[in-house]
Structures are given as structure tokens and as C-alpha cells.
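Limitations

Structures in this collection are predictions, not experimental determinations, and the ligand pose is part of the prediction. Treat each record accordingly. The example that follows, with glycine as the small molecule, is included so readers can see exactly what is and is not provided: the inputs are given verbatim, and the output is the predicted complex.
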Amino acid sequence: MCQMQNPCRALRGWGIMRQISSELNRCLLSYRGREPIDLEIARAQHQTFRELLEDLGLEITIIPELDNHPDCCFVEDTAVLLGSNTAVICSMGNPARRGEEQAVAALLEKRGLHLVRMAGDARADGGDVLIINNEVFVGLSNRTNAEGFKVIAAAAEPEGIEAHAVRIRGALHLKSVVTRLGKSSVLGLKRHIGEGLGFLERYDWLTPPAGEEAAANAVTLGDTVVVSSTNRELARLIERRGFKVASVDISELQKAEAGLTCLAILKSES
Ligand code: GLY
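Predicted complex:
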């Protein structure tokens, strides 16, 4: 189970997750060497994260796995929620992943969201899209291109959200190296961000201690920050900033280059 004293169901909102593929051992890898993934442990870790989100008050819908899509549980990459009413359905950067977005789009449509679909050469993975307050930062990476940024920026504008492009180096996604920490700070590693860093420098940065860099990928929900459980020193630093910390072990999923954010599309009030 999650390591938190009093998960309080204080949040209102919902999320989408997807079952882990039986073929996860054939996942895409960009920056890690391949290691065997124990599917049973990976599924248990995924379930623990789901239970934590539910304990916090979110209603989670689980989509079945998709054949021939080993990375399908990384549902975050398929769509980007913007403001109260809009979802951009991504044309993901790696062709092997395209198709995963269809079941997600159907669910988002059922929820009444206005869907904006990428066409032509536009490419983006949701992992490259970081939303803080009324700003959206889009990482230009091996998965997300300038055309993808333009689609997201155009969809964000009517929602009153200003878009900024930031160049990523040496990391899979923007959110592999920087995530939101509450409303006025970010958790991350500046060294992975090139052009556009200035837009993010307006936020107060907390840098994960050496050896805990993977923890730059965390999920803030209300006053709770969910981190991967190996990051004890970072957890202490986050608590000192007034947040509650919940820890989930996703070590088996990290072998597939996953972070916590990859595992869910979340819509919550705070
Ligand atoms: N293994 C996750 C991805 O490359 O999309």
C-alpha cells in the first residue's frame, strides 16, 4: 500500500489509467538499457498507485490493455487536458505508440470534453506537456515537435492558458525532468532544459538530491505530492515546504522509462 498516514479523499476529480501490457518487456527505451520487468510486480505497483489516487478522492477508470502496444499503460502520452473543457488528442512521436489514443479519446468525449486532434506532421507526447496554473510548457523533444506545440498552443488559448516551448536535452520527456510542485514551484533538473528555460525560471525550483534525480517526476494533487518511494531525502525536502508526501514504489515500471505522471491522465479541482 501507499506510504501515507491519512489519505483523506479530499479531492474531487477523475482519472484514466490503462492496464499494463503483457508485452511490457518489449517497451520502447531511449535512455535506459533493457532489464527484465517482472509483470506481476509491475501490476501490483500500478494497482497501488491507482489505490492511492482513489484514496485521495479521484474516480479512476481503467482501460484494458491494447494488443501490440507494450507501452500502452503510459496513458499520459495520449492526450493533454487543457482548462475546463478541452482535450488535445496526441499524435504520439513514436509511430509504435499511435493507436493508443483512440480508447482515451472515446472516454474523454463521453465526459463531454471538446476534442482537438493532431493532424499532418504535428507530433506530441503528453509527457512533454507541463501545466502550471494558466501556463502550459511544451517540451520540444524526440517525441514532440514544433507543429505539435502549435496545436497545443492554439487549443490552450481559448482556455486562457499561455503556451511556451522549451527545448529538452538528454531526457525522454519534459516531465521526466521537471514537474509541478504546488502552484508556485517546480521540482526538477535545469540541466536538461535548453532554450525556453527562462519561462520556467520564474518558478521556485526544488532540485532533487544527487541519486534521486528520477524523483523529478512527481504528481501534486492538492496539498499532497506523490513521489516514488526510493526518494527519501527528497520527500523530507518536500515536506519542509508544507506538503504531505505519499510514496509509491514504481521501480519495476521505471525499467520501462516510466515516471508516476506517465501512468494516468488526471483531472482534479486543485
Ligand atoms: N517507454 C515509454 C516510451 O518510450 O514511450
